[in-house]
Design a protein that fits this description.
Distance between the termini: 52 Å
Number of helices: 4
Shape: elongated
Number of domains: 2
Largest sheet: none
Order of helices and strands: HHHH
Helix content: over 70%
Strand content: under 5%
């Protein structure tokens, strides 16, 4: 992502305080050409971090469903109510040429 790519986003200027080590490492990445500038590095890192947290939250919610007896009962009832039509659909899919 280059600075020109950021032009398509609404942006707000802000100030952050970084540990010295992170500032030095970010400068090394810029100097080596791995990222064009610190702004791009920060935006990319934040996007990836937020995406990871969102995935972890989704995983946490799915894990909670595994412990939810009411949900398990509901899911079992739905599966049972569709079992006959599922078998019919499977049989039709396995019948060649019809």
């Amino acid at each position: 992502m280059s600075l020109s790519m950021l032009d398509k986003y609404d942006t707000v200027r802000t100030t952050i305080t970084l540990p010295t080590r992170l500032l030095q490492k970010s400068q090394e990445l810029i100097d080596s050409g791995q990222v064009p500038n610190r702004n791009v590095l920060m935006v990319t890192a934040l996007e990836q971090f937020i995406a990871r947290l969102e995935r972890e939250e989704i995983d946490r919610q799915f894990a909670a469903l595994a412990e939810d007896t009411e949900y398990q009962s509901w899911q079992t009832n739905i599966a049972e109510s569709f079992s006959e039509s599922d078998w019919e659909a499977l049989g039709e899919a396995e019948t060649p040429g019809e």
